[in-house]
Design brief:
By secondary structure, the protein is an alpha+beta fold. It has one domain. Helices cover 41% and strands 22% of the residues. The chain has a 6-stranded antiparallel beta sheet with strand order 1-2-6-5-4-3, with helices on one face. The longest helix has 60 residues. The radius of gyration is 34 Å and the shape is elongated. The mean pLDDT is 81. Keywords: Membrane, Transmembrane, Transmembrane helix.
């Protein structure tokens, strides 16, 4: 009978040790859940910071566009009527900037003062004349002004395409 008593006496010990094991397991699971939650929060925070920074870059990029247009045209200041500027500058090895904008027809000629442009008649969608990407609204292209500046040591080109009224413009600067 001693064996039966020993077995009966051992049952509470087994139950207690099993409870300890289950609690230890649940503690480990709880710890892993907490750790997993922390990792998720860190990832969400990092993605949030990156998204906020990207939004900031996109939201403030439009401020650079007037300077880009003046840079393309080699003029110090744009006429006040220049508006609705949309630019693209995606090249990595060369300098390629394309901007589309609207201008009052009376202010178009000052845009040509920075370079010695030659003009040619063209046709088609003005957006198709963008060097980097199609930017701005579509318009019927009528005139193209272009120049190959000698100051571009490795070559390049600056051109403007406009409609017949000279109110819509796509300007490009390509420099190797």
């Amino acid at each position: 009978m001693a064996k039966a008593d020993d077995v009966l006496a051992a049952i509470p010990k087994l139950l207690i040790s099993r409870q300890i094991d289950e609690r230890g397991w649940s503690l480990r699971v709880s710890f892993l859940k907490q750790r997993f939650s922390k990792i998720i929060y860190i990832i969400i925070f990092a993605v949030g910071i990156f998204s906020a920074y990207f939004y900031y870059l996109v939201a403030t990029d439009y401020r650079k566009n007037p300077a880009r247009v003046a840079f393309i045209l080699n003029i110090s200041e744009l006429p006040r009527s220049v508006r609705d500027i949309e630019c693209s500058a995606g090249a990595i090895t060369d300098l390629i900037v394309t901007c589309a904008f609207r201008v009052h027809s009376d202010d178009f000629q000052p845009l040509l003062s920075g370079w010695r442009f030659k003009s040619d008649e063209v046709s088609g969608d003005g957006r198709d004349y963008g060097t980097d990407a199609k930017v701005g609204p579509s318009f019927d292209a009528a005139l193209q002004y272009s120049v190959y500046p000698e100051s571009f040591k490795r070559g390049g080109r600056v051109d403007l395409v406009t409609n017949r009224d000279q109110t819509m413009v796509v300007a490009n600067r390509y420099e190797e």
